[in-house]
Design goal:
The protein is α+β, with helices and mostly antiparallel strands and 327 residues long. The chain has 10 helices and 9 strands. It has a 5-stranded antiparallel β-sheet. It comes from Streptomyces hokutonensis.
Amino acid sequence: MTTDPQELAELLPAPGRPVLSRDRHRVLREHLMRYITHEHDTIHEQSSTTPTAPRRPARRRLVLVAAPLALAAAVGLGVVAVDNAREGRDGTAAAADHQKAVKLLDRIALAAADRTTLTARDDQFIYTKSQGSAAELGVDFSSAAELAGRKGMFTPKPYNGAVRQEQWDAVDGKADGLRKGVAVADPTQKMEMDMNGVGYLTFRQLQALPTDPDALLKRFSGDAANVSAARRTEVVVENLGAIVDEATLLPDLSAAIYRALAELPGVSVVDHVKDAAGREGVGLTFKDAPKGYAWVFDSSSLVYRGTTDAALLGVGVADRAGEVPAG
């Protein structure tokens, strides 16, 4: 009996997507190159009796060629030339700022992709710990009687100091969550409230999101796809900001978020910026963002630290609401 290879092939399932994402391939490749370089240097040092200085890899040199501006014959033309030159300088500065942000986001994405994915069961909870203002985090120190008598939209009771919030969200969104808040300067000011229903997106829904930056941008642009670039950036940053905390548990999604941000106009780097917990790092801000607002990353590890309004102090997986994950 003979067997046709084509018939066997048709019985097999179609090949799936690559196991490793683009960023993971790049991370592994860089690890391999560092290993090869280390092995080469070790062999060289063992085979030579004369110590030599480590060689730096050759870098491509960029040469900028400036074209001279022609002098205008008329005063009016001279004014136009000056205005155009000023606009050109402004445009060049903006382009340089954006390019700096793109390079930083590339490094941030690679660092995010290199982290370990945390798995979670449907009966577990995603735990996040944050610090910021009461209004930003939605912490309310009102009494139970005040809350029971309140009508209309939820508005936190005014509190000027920093607060810490812990939150537990069901992985599949089916169980009730929990939120706790405490005033940093006055631990007697406390809040605890059950959270019914699903928030923005469940962890399972986050896992189903595309990890292609373009597809992610399309998904989170919403109705802003046909409006101005600045408005689109605002909408995308707001939507991605709502998932970035929990996305730190999903390396591929986290890396895709940062690569998506790199495609938005008006993104720029802010050096020596502090998150809402006072930790200094490197920041990314956006055109038309509120004054002083930025996403903050650790300067060394490039780990996401939160924003200037709400710092991310911890994230993990807990077995029960109210339980703090180990570590």
